[in-house]
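W.,

You were right to be curious about this one. When I first looked at the sequence I had no strong expectations either way, so I just let the prediction run and decided to look at it fresh. Below is the sequence, 160 residues in total, followed by the output.
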Amino acid sequence: MAMVQEAQMPAPLEILYGESLFEAAPDGAGDEKEVTVVLLAEDDPELAELYCAGLGRSGFLVIIAEDGRKAVHLAEELKPAIICLDIRMPELDGLGVLTELRAGNGTRALPVVMLTNHSEPELLRRARQLGALDYLLKSATPPTRLAQRIRKALEATAQA
């Protein structure tokens, strides 16, 4: 899982929700708390905020990329534990993002869950071919359910 320190956070973050990056250790030593960083590529600000708040309450640190180019950049820079990726986005669509991630040395193995409103079988097939672990419809996936699926995907990745 990704370990993040304040100095490693990139400047272009517009929205950042979730638990504090630092929390006192049980013994009072003040050690850093390990957080699971989720990169959410979502161009709809209302949906981004909804998922950020819900995932933050589930203990994740959520970073938003509002377009595909920014998603690739943040994935390369941060190496999040997992990426939740919309398909239809400005600059570069989700399948283009996934293609670039799989071509990059530092991002090839990052787990990706598709989170989209598009249920066309061809999109699902293409996402699976490119290595997406899961394909979720936003209309059927409240933030609590997304948190469960993220945990499941991370567990599957850790066991592989």
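Here's what jumped out at me. The beta strands are 16-17, 36-41, 60-65, 82-85, 112-116, 134-137. And, maybe more interesting for your project: Residues 35-143 form a domain with the Rossmann fold fold (CATH 3.40.50.2300).

Coffee later to discuss?

I.
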